[in-house]
Amino acid sequence: MSSSAIKSDIGTAERQAEITQESLSWSNLQISQRAIGYVPYLDYSIAVYESLDSSVKTEAKKIKYFYTPVVLLDPRSAKYQYHQLIEKHTVIFDVTLWDDDIQQRVVSYLNEEMKLNADKSQINVIPFEKLILTTDVHSNAFTCPKEWKFIQMHKVVSFRLLFETEDEAIKTVELFKTSPEQLNSVFNIKFSLSNKTLNSKEIVISIESVVNGKMFSKLNQKFSKSNEIYLTADDAKALLVESVDNVILESFSDSDVVSSTSEEEIYRILERMMTSGKEIVTAQKAHMWNSVFWNDDNYRPDKIASTLNEVHLKTDKETQSKIVAAISDSSKSSLDIGTTLEGYGISSENSRFANSERERRLRKFGENCLKLEWTGDRFVPKPLELTRINLSSIRNKQVCRYFRKTRVSYFSGTLSMSVNVVQNDRITELVKKETNVVQSIQQKLDDVSKHTQQQEALDQDLVGVEDSVPSDFPWY
C-alpha cells in the first residue's frame, strides 16, 4: 500500500504517532498533515494540528485546532473480573484519551507559546470514531480481544485482557499496581476516523516468519541436535501466534489492522506448514519427555514425578499418605499444593527467594503437580497430548513446501500510538490530591459532628434548667 507518514518522537518515552495521508476521512476533515506544535504534558508531548477547511471554522471564522489523544493508562484502575458469558478470566483497566486539564493546557500553549489567540471553543481532540487495543507481546498468559470500540468524544475508555487462569489474571493486576513502569509501550491503540470498509491484498507466507521468531530460536537452540520435538497445546499456540504476528508485521504497516478471520486463516496455514500431527505421551512412552519443550525443565511433569517418588520411598507411611492426598485433592489450589509439598522438603529451594517470587515458583510447581497421578505405588505423569514439530524441515527451509499465498482482509488505521502509564510520581501526586479532598470532606464532617454535639449538650443543659424551675414559676 502506498502511503507517506509523519513520525515524531514525543517525549522521553519516545512515543510515536503515525498519520496516514491516504486516509479518506482525514482528507475530508482537512487537518494539516504536519503538527503545528507539541504541548508538553507529563513526560510526553501532545501533537496539535490545524484545520485547513473553511467549512469547519467557527461562526467567527476562527480556525479549528485538533490534538492527539494522550493514551495514558492509570494502573490503579486495573481490576480482576470473571466474565461468565465468555467463561474467561479478565483484567479490566482504563485509558485516558483526554480531559479538561489537557484541553486547557492546549489552549494555554497555543496562546502563550504560539501567540494564536485561540479560545476553548476552537480546540478539540481529533474526532476519531473507533479504536482497538493491540500488543506486540507474545504471551501464553493473556490475549487482547480483537474488538473495535466505537467512541464519541470519550474521555476515558475501558479495555480488557483475557486470561485462561485466575492466577495469571490476579498476578497481572498486582503488576499493574506495583510495577507500572513495566507496562510502558507494551500496548498500542489504533484509531480510525470512520467506519471504513475492508481492504484486501495478497501476501506470501513463508517459513522465514517462523525462523525469525524468538520462540523458534529458543527451541532451535535447546534442541539443536533433534529433528523432531513436542510442544504442549499452549506452547504450540504461542509459537504459531508469534509467527502470525511476524507475518503481519512483515506484510502490513503499523496502522493496519488485519481482520480476525484472516488472522485465523494465516494461523491455519502456518499450522499446516510447521506441525506434523499430534501424539499422546504416556507412561509407556516415557522416553518422549526428553524431546518435550518445557519452559523450566525442573517443573517438567516426569521430573517432578521422579522427585516425588524418591521422597515417597524415604518417608514414613503417614507422610506418604499426606503427599499423595495433597496432589490428589482437586479442591486445592496450585499454590496450596506447592506450599504443602514444600513443608515436606519437596521444592524447598524456593524458600531462599523473596515472597512474591517464592509464591510464583510454588504456584508453578503446584500447577505441574496437577499433571500427575498416583498409580498405587508411584507417581506418573497423566497422559498428555502434544504437537509434533519437524525442526529439521523448518531449518532446511524447503522452498517448494514452505511458501503459501493467501488473500488477507484488513482495515487501514489512521493513528497508532503506544499506551503509556502514569508513573509512580504522578500517581503519588494524584493520590495526594485525592487525599486532600478526602481530608477536607472529613474536616467538614468533623465540624458538623462537633456542632451537633455542642447543640445536644446545650439542649441537655436547657432541659436541666427547665427541670429546676418550680412548677408554679410565672413564665408570663
List the helices and strands and how they pair.
Layout: E1 5-6, E2 9-10, E3 15-16, E4 18-20, H1 24-29, E5 37-41, E6 44-50, E7 65-67, E8 72-83, E9 88-96, H2 100-113, E10 123-125, E11 130-135, E12 142-143, E13 149-150, E14 156-163, H3 166-178, E15 187-192, E16 199-206, H4 208-211, H5 214-222, E17 228-231, H6 233-251, E18 256-258, H7 260-274, E19 275-281, H8 301-314, H9 317-328, H10 334-343, H11 355-369, E20 372-374, E21 379-381, E22 384-390, H12 391-396, E23 403-412, E24 415-418, E25 420-421, H13 424-468
Parallel strand pairs: 7-10, 8-25
Antiparallel strand pairs: 1-4, 2-3, 4-24, 5-6, 6-7, 8-9, 9-14, 11-13, 11-15, 12-14, 15-24, 16-23, 17-22, 18-23, 19-22, 20-21
Helix pairs in contact: 6-7, 10-11
Keywords:
single chain, 476 residues, alpha+beta, 6-stranded antiparallel β-sheet, 13 helices, 25 strands, disordered N terminus
Characterization of this structure:
The strands form seven sheets. Strands 1-4-24-15-11-13 form a six-stranded antiparallel beta sheet, with no helix packed on it. Strands 12-14-9-8-25 form a five-stranded mixed beta sheet. A four-stranded mixed beta sheet has the order 5-6-7-10, with helices on one face. Helix 10 crosses helix 11. The protein has 476 residues and is an alpha+beta fold. The chain contains 13 helices and 25 strands. The protein is flat. Among the domains are: 223 residues, no CATH class; 100 residues, no CATH class.
